[in-house]
Amino acid sequence: MSYKLASKIKKEALKQGFILAGITTLEPPPHISTYLDWIEAGRHASMGYLADERARTRRANPKLILPEAESLLLLAAPYPDPKLDSPISTTGVEKGKGRISAYAWNDDYHITLKEKLIHLVEFIEEEIGHEIPNRWYTDTGPILEKDLAQRAGLGWIGKNTCLINPKLGSYFFLAEIFLGIKLPSDEPFKADYCGTCTRCIDACPTEAILPNRSIDANLCISYLTIENKGDIPEELRPKLGNLIFGCDICQEVCPWNMSIRDGRFSSPISSSYKIDTHPNLIEELSLSPQEFNKKFKNNPVKRAKRRGYLRNVAVALGNDGDSEAIPALERALEDIEPLVRTHAEWALQEIKLKNKKC
Ligand code: SF4
Ligand code: SF4
After folding, report:
1. What is the pLDDT of residue 176?
2. Beta-strand runs (E) in the chain
3. How many Å apart are CA 2 and CA 178, to the nearest integer?
4. What is the pTM of this model?
5. What is the tens place of the pLDDT at every residue in 349-358?
């Protein structure tokens, strides 16, 4: 086992823009039972790919993913702080504008991190002088990456279920590389700095955070606006406010993210964004399929597809309540997508109700 090689790999990872790097074994993740209970209770909502046999067995035993693997390199790459780096306001709420989760303000991390992960594998192979079995994922593989990142010493899993590092907060993506070489493991991160804090639980608009550090996806706005392909339940629509893709609230209120705003850390990718982070809702509702595809070509928003995104925009317009949106919503009643039409109908009713009350 080479400590020198492990140290060189971590240094190279930092040079590539990762902000944390740690190594762990392929042993089963410590909180696999929480995951299995979560699936059993149906908290994964419609994300069936999380529940199938293959997904369960691989999460329970990472060795099944790459039997030749002997070490796992866990990495963290930063994304913007939605409050510190927000171009419009500290609250992210502005009349007529939607809010897109900060992780989507730049190009899709699946694309941007890929090159860095391939580079790291090549670097390691060059260092040892031969090719090695390897596999890398950026939140794409059947693996409990937060659990393993904790074991690799990167941070602890907070009550909001994010991995939190005491110096860097939680605004980062995780990635991992399975390596067919034996490297020394880092010390697991043992402390739990959540203490008696319950800010994330109290701030969650839909009460989606459960007591056992898991989230009920059926209630979570991130799920409802991204992975959910169907209707947003009517009783939850008012709680979405102006969130049109994802939700950062349980991270925004976390004191461990606030403490990084004193300048000790600033995201290297925060200077310019590839999309409008707080787009005009009326304009978004008129996006044609071609315009949507062009606008979000390399962006995570494309995951929701046009029908999901416009569904969310319609809900945000209903919550905004401005009668100026009525013509755009009436046009959306003729949209090619039934999902957009039904949510536009709801939004029109909301606006009428709100304006009657005034
Ligand atoms: S992402 Fe939003 S809705 Fe989901 S748990 Fe966090 S605060 Fe609640
Ligand atoms: S807001 Fe408080 S309880 Fe929630 S993750 Fe942060 S420190 Fe933990």
Report:
1. 97
2. 20-24, 71-78, 99-100, 134-137, 156-157, 163-164, 172-179, 209-210, 214-215, 243-245
3. 17
4. 0.94
5. 999 999 986 6
Q: For residues 76 and 170, is the Cβ–Cβ distance under 8 A?
A: no
Distance from residue 6's CA to the centre of ligand 1 (Å): 36
The SS3 assignment for 335 reads coil
pLDDT tens by residue, 296-349: 999 999 999 999 999 999 999 999 999 999 999 999 999 999 999 999 999 999
Atom of ligand 1 nearest to the CA of 249: 7
Evaluate if residue 244 carries a pLDDT over 60: yes
Looking at the CA of 226, which ligand is closest? 1
Q: What b/e string do you get for 203-236 counting C-beta neighbours within 10 Å, with b at 16 or more? A: ebbbebbbeebbbbbbbbbbbbbbbbeeebeeeb
Name residue, tokens 């928003």.
Answer: 301
Q: Does the CB atom of residue 197 touch ligand 2 within 6 A?
A: yes
Predicted confidence band at 273 (pLDDT cuts at 50, 70, 90)? Answer: confident
Residues 64-93 have a mean pLDDT of 83
Identify the residue whose C-alpha is closest to ligand 1 atom 2. Answer: 247
**Best of 252, 256, 259 to mutate for ligand 2, by most ligand atoms within 8 A of CB?**
256
List the catalytic residues.
Answer: 139
Distance of CA 332 to the CA centre of its chain: 29
Question: What residue ranges do the domains of the chain occupy?
Answer: 1-232+244-267, 280-349
Instruction: Say if residues 138 and 42 touch (Cβ distance below 8 Å).
Output: no
Name the helix (H) or strand (E) containing 294. helix 289-295
**Residue 75 in this model has a pLDDT that exceeds 90:** yes
Q: Are 98 and 242 in contact (CB under 8 A)?
A: yes
CA 249 to ligand 2 center in whole angstroms? 11
CATH of domain 280-349: 1.25.10
Q: What is the pLDDT of residue 246?
A: 98
